[in-house]
Amino acid sequence: MSLEFANDDARRFERDLKMMERRVRDLRPALLAFGQHMTTIPARAVRAQADPTTGAPWPVLSGLTAGNRRGSGGTKALQDTGRLVQSWLAATPRVDGLTVTIQSNVAYARLHNEGGTIKPKTAKHLALPLSQKAALGAKRIGVRAYVDSVAKKVGKKPFVLTSKAGNKFLVVGNRAGGLDFLFLLKKSVTIPARRYAGMGDKDLRRLRSILRAHLLGKA
Q1: Which of 1, 34, 101, 176 is most buried per CB count within 10 Å?
Q2: Cβ of 137: how many Cβ atoms within 10 Å?
Q3: What is the reported pLDDT for 73?
Q4: What residues contact residue 170 under an 8 Å CB cut-off, 6+ apart?
């Protein structure tokens, strides 16, 4: 069996090869297109509550964190105010050679993706709010000012109570004669990794599709 190319076929083949050669030398459009696709990966990971590369489910939220939610995220991790996901969706892909980069402007983006331990910078303890009210108050005016405002209302002095298990709480007496537990005091807090940045099989297929369309002049 033999194949023969007519002159028109040969010219068309040569033209296509030259086009592909030009496009191989300039992959920037394809990389920018894939970079735009990359901005959607964190949002999909948050919806699935799973690592986008391995499919492994994320650690569940602690009851304390879920209880202090101020947004509509319910008990799903990284889905309280939506700020983190939006920061990725709004990211502008940047291409340098054969590398495409997107970046979040949220300070805690890397911490939640990779996990890590938080320690106080100046105080002896981290103050973890024990209610949504305390969380909002601390965010608005700071922990010390919020505790002082609560204490002033009831005419009581705040103090630290240590449980039998060794947990320390910042509390204020209330008018009913009981105690209002405002904050749990910790020397450090460990945030588990919840990987949302990564590529799974679906993303790799999308990359191949974008590259193929670029090389064939269909993009």
Answers
A1: 34
A2: 19
A3: 56
A4: 127, 147, 158, 159, 160, 181, 182, 183, 184, 185
Q: What is the pLDDT of residues 144-168, one digit of tens each?
A: 999 999 999 999 999 999 999 999 9
Q: Are 191 and 111 in contact (CB under 8 A)?
A: yes
- Closest by CA to 188, choosing from 110, 117, 124, is 117
Which residue in the block uniquely carries the two structure tokens 């919020």?
146
- Report which of residues 135 and 68 the model is more confident about: 135
Q: What is the pLDDT of residues 48-96, one digit of tens each?
A: 999 999 999 999 988 888 777 665 556 889 988 899 999 999 999 999 9
For the chain, what's the residue count? 219
Model-level pTM greater than 0.90?
no
